[in-house]
Amino acid sequence: PPTPATVIAAAAASAIDWSRFAGGAVTTGGQAAAAAAATGSGAVRVRVPLLDRMVNQAGEVSITRSRIEAEVNALKASLADLSDNLERLRRQLRDLELQAETQIASRMEQAKAAAQEFDPLEFDRFTRFQELTRMMAESVNDVATVQRSLQRALQAAEDDLAAQARLTRDLQDDLLRTRMVEFESLSERLYRVVRQAAKETGKQVRLDIVGGSIEVDRGVLDRMTPAFEHLLRNCVTHGIEKPDVRAAAGKDPTGQITVVLRQEGNEVAVEFRDDGAGLNLARIRERGVALGLVAPDAELSDAEIAQLIYTPGFSTAEQVTELAGRGVGMDVVRSEVVAMGGRIETATAAGQGTSFKLVLPLTTAVTQVVMLRCGDTRVAVPSTLIELVKRVPADSLEPAYRDGAIDLGGDRLPFFWLGALLDESARSAQPARNATLVVVRSAQQRVVLHVDEVVGNQEAVVKNLGPQLSRLPGLAGMTLLASGMPALIYNPVALAAVYGDAARERMRAGRASQGAAAATAGAGDVAPLVLVVDDSLTVRRVTQRLLVREGYRVALAKDGLEALELLADEMPAVVLSDIEMPRMDGFDLVRNLRADARWRRLPVIMITSRIAQKHRDVATQLGVDHYLGKPYSEDELLELVARYARLPVAA
Q1: Which of 490, 518, 546 is the last residue of a domain?
Q2: Which of 220, 424, 522, 638 would give a disulfide with 429, using CB separation of 3.0 to 4.6 Å?
């Protein structure tokens, strides 16, 4: 399958609003608008491309607002850091003032001996040091005033953003409502399809539409109309019996087909129900065996047998006609439903009829998605497909990776690492005690995905991919995140149906290559951790940027005590430490490391401005592996880190 990076690149080139080139015009509101015009209220004819552009522009406004909101949140976090730093500065200034007052008291005795004009108790004499502390106190108060002003401005900006979000949502809802048309607008077309199919098959059929006043997005309706027509033909051809057969079974000679619409939250359910003979499960199984889809001795449930009708090229008709026998239809119906981000459910009862329930989004312009992360890749999945999110111990997933299936809730479900389905990685590269599993359900099919993180649920403005990418398996659309980065919207069940076998092979190959010892650590190598210990913030940041650029993970500590706390969480590959630090210096840190059996063999590189032989000798006696003087050579440091981390030196 194409990776998200390649698809995003292609989408950037092809995400054109193709509807602007379409001709024609619509009357907003459909029949309701016509009725309103008849009663004297005005109706406006709006061209479809113009309406689509307005909806797209409203979506762009929503994306921009989300981006501003993210920037405000970043500013809020920076302001919180400023508040913390200000409080710490206040504490340090109080300590400094206490020291200054102590110096004033100590100078009183000197003043007595000097026989000044004023008694020391009558007149304080301030040095430049005391003057500076008082000036610093005034500066801190000024900074605090600016900080409070920023907080008030930030709160006002957040309130305005919340109000603007409500206005944007109302504008978007009203624009989307202009795209909505009643399902009844298709009624004449659907009645005609049933009449023609009944005439050609010699059957008597009655069609009823229940809930036809429910409004659906015109784009959804136009795209799904051929699927609706095919389902009605199937109901007449395969479902409804001949009049004499129905009479012999005690049924009304006229067959009944009912189309029922129900709105369920942000979705609409369209159910096609007939009172015919139901699916011939025995015949379906027989055809499945003949086509090699089912082993002759396989034990399948009725639901699994019913799913065979969605296989391309599958048909139970005895002969090919205009209405049946070509094996083209139900697989196309399911593909269209899945491409819309919906699902299809099938139910049947022998002698009572069959039901096909299509659950579709009300609109394809705006939808709710759940953001999933695997490694550095983030993909969106329609929230209607998410059935369950669960955390399990990471070491319990080894059998699932080996078998490609997992027992969950009493059912054995297909199991995949999301990165394997996207052809990016074989396993998670993020070490963790607990793993996140997501159960995705589309129609009657369910799969379990292992992901690094469920980022959260959000409203997404779906962008048009264009005809070049619209038929890619499992790709439902693309949206833009608040950061401005594009994110692909996938249906993982459709991905698993097409690329499941290749993903399982990739997961097994990843297990064999990394060995059992690193089964839960991910298929790719986990970047080595380097612990940098230095009291200088500048040195810590410069060293961190250097090492991160070379692919290492970096942990920072400002003294030896903080370094020992970090060592308790994760063992680094190498420690880079200064000597002169508060609370615990570098020599004491090395003494503690060499005295503990857990860290006795941990490589330590000293980086310090003390380059005298005496300091080098002390470091050697303590067991320091290497000693560098400041300023050091970056190439030399990287070579040492790579050697102790047992990695090749980066080019």
Answers
A1: 518
A2: 522
- 459 & 571 share domain: no
pLDDT at position 259 over 90: yes
Statement: residue 33 has pLDDT above 80: no
CATH of the domain at 304: 3.30.565.10
Instruction: Report the percentage of the chain scoring pLDDT > 70.
Output: 80
Residues 302 and 353 in one domain: yes
Sole residue written with tokens 């194409």: 2
Q: At what angle do helices 560-569 and 586-595 cross, to 10 degrees?
A: 40
Of the listed ranges 252-261, 461-470, 490-499, 527-536, the least confidently predicted one is: 461-470
For residue 570, is it within any domain?
A: yes
DSSP secondary structure letter of residue 52: H
10 Å CB burial of residue 450 (0-12, 13-18, 19+) is buried
Given phi > 0 = left and psi -120 to 50 = alpha, else beta, which region is 335? alpha
Interhelix angle 128-178/48-113, rounded to 10 degrees, is 170
5: in domain: no
The answer to the question of residue 552 being in a domain is yes
Work out the number of other CB atoms within 10 angstroms of the CB of residue 90: 15
Residues 215 and 357 in one domain: yes
C-beta pairs of 401-409 under 8 Å, 24+ apart in sequence = 401/427, 401/507, 401/508, 401/511, 401/519, 402/508, 402/511, 404/500, 404/504, 404/507, 406/437, 406/448, 408/437, 408/439, 408/448
Confidence of residue 9 (pLDDT cuts 50, 70, 90): low
Q: What single letter denotes the amino acid at residue 135?
A: M
Domain count, the chain: 4
Residue 32 counted as domain residue: no
> What is the per-residue pLDDT across 554-564, written as a single tens digit (0 to 9) for each?
888 888 888 88
Question: Which of 498, 518, 538 is at the close of a domain?
Answer: 518
- Looking at residue 97, its pLDDT comes to 75
Higher pLDDT, 480 or 89: 89
The residue segments making up the domain with residue 563 are: 529-644
Query: How, if at all, do strands 445-451 and 353-361 pair?
Result: unpaired
3-state secondary structure of 565: helix
Alpha helices by DSSP H, 179-324: 187-201, 218-234, 243-248, 281-290, 302-306
Say which residue, 518 or 400, is predicted with more confidence. 400
What is residue 293's predicted lDDT score, i.e. its pLDDT? 81
432 lies in the same domain as 457: yes
> Can you spell out the DSSP letters for 62-111?
HHHHHHHHHHHHHHHHHHHHHHHHHHHHHHHHHHHHHHHHHHHHHHHHHH
Per-residue pLDDT band at 261 (split at 50, 70, 90):
very high
